[in-house]
Amino acid sequence: MEKFELYILGCGAALPTPHHFCSSQVLNIREKLFMIDCAEGTQMQLRRSKLKMQNIHNIFITHLHGDHCFGLIGLLSTLALLGRTATLHVWGPTGMKEIFQPQIDFFCAGTTYSIELHEVSHRQSEVIYEDRSVTISTLPLKHRVPCIGYLFQEKPLLPHIRRDAIDAFGIPVSQINNIKAGMDWTTPDGEVIPNHLLTTPADPVRSFAYMSDTMYAPELTEKLQGVNLLYHEATFSKEHELLARQNFHSTASQAAMMAKEANAKQLLIGHFSSRYKDESVLLHEAQNIFPNTIAANEGMTIKL
Fold first, then answer.
1. How confident is the model over 44-66, as pLDDT tens digits?
2. Which helix H or strand E contains 57, and what residues bound it?
3. Are residues 113 and 195 in the same domain?
4. What is the helix, strand, coil percentage profile of the chain, to 5?
């Protein structure tokens, strides 16, 4: 199967701790790297992960709180030092240009590459990016400031051509892509071999949703139906549900309810409050509602 892998660079909440960096992830879809959030310390985590920062062409910022974007200007500056030439696109909520453009003008003056800032609405879901591999849509989250989640949906792959069929019918390499696209094959004797005898079904498409930071938002479950992996903040336990509500965050139970109602295949919880020295309390709370839950941790790679 083509790559669809998630790398966890940071999964803590507002305060960096000896255990967790603040929010940042990288999603590899068919060798295209998409960064989601870029907190302080992200560059160091990229180095440790062995991911090539030069291969990141799109960065998606959820909101303008420091634990999700303080690392951005440093990363942009480093890319200039490395001699980057390819355009970098940064996506985020309204107000992002006002904050980051002056920093870019000051710290990245004379850079060898272009930085394009794209502001998107936090009030409605819309497709903001599309290429041959993936469609990326926004998810309007419920936080103290404009906040955006992101849904990554892989585009369908072509069917697989059967190796034995290539040999049996003498199919030349030049015709393989045509057969994958649905063409039948006609032998030199004039026999038509139907396409379904030449191919096997394509790999199922995969999807990933990123929801941090947000209150419980059941109105989004329809858009998330059947998602392969849902990353949802679980800043607090249900013991601190009032605190979660006051700060526009979610509990581990609420994250699990989102996964259950969305019929997600797997739930990944993160954005852990520094008050929890052992996040197993959050993990067990979520698993009681949605058993296929795992807890994020720096250095983790999840292959879909």
1. 999 999 899 999 999 999 999 99
2. strand 56-60
3. no
4. 30, 30, 45
Using the Cα atoms of residue 88, residue 71, residue 63 and residue 95 in order, give the sign of their dihedral: negative
* Helix axes 96-107 and 72-81, enclosed angle (nearest 10): 30
Q: Which amino acid is at 274?
A: S
Number of neighbours of residue 189 by Cβ within 10 angstroms: 5
User: Domain range holding 261?
Assistant: 4-157+203-303
Give the residue among 63, 62, 71, 72 at the shortest CA–CA distance from 36. 62
How is residue 123 written in tokens? 């009030």
What does DSSP assign to residue 112? S
What 3-state DSSP class applies to 101? helix
Using an 8 Å Cβ cutoff, are 303 and 4 in contact? yes
Give pLDDT, residue 166. Answer: 83
3-state secondary structure of 68: helix
- φ, ψ of residue 81 to 5 degrees: the values are -60, -30
The tokens for 159 are 């069917």
Quote the CA–CA distance of 29 and 152 in Å, as a whole number: 9
| Residues paired with 7 in a beta bridge | 26, 301
Q: How many Å apart are CA 218 and CA 261, to the nearest integer?
A: 8
Task: Give me the active site residues, please.
Answer: 67
Q: What is the pLDDT of residues 122-175, one digit of tens each?
A: 999 999 999 999 999 999 999 999 999 999 999 988 888 888 888 888 888 888
Give the N- to C-terminal CA distance of the chain in Å, as an integer: 10
Last residue of a domain, one of 183, 200, 217: 200
Interacting residues of 234 by C-beta distance below 8 A, sequence separation 6+: 250, 251, 252, 254, 255, 269, 270, 271, 272, 282, 286
Q: What is the pLDDT of residue 19?
A: 86
Average confidence (pLDDT) over 230-236 = 98
Residue pLDDT, tens place only, 189-232: 888 888 888 888 888 899 999 999 999 999 999 999 999 999 99
Would you state the pLDDT for residue 15?
Answer: 84
Are 189 and 91 part of one and the same domain? no
Query: What CA–CA distance (Å, rounded) separates 10 from 20?
Result: 6
Number of domains in the chain: 2
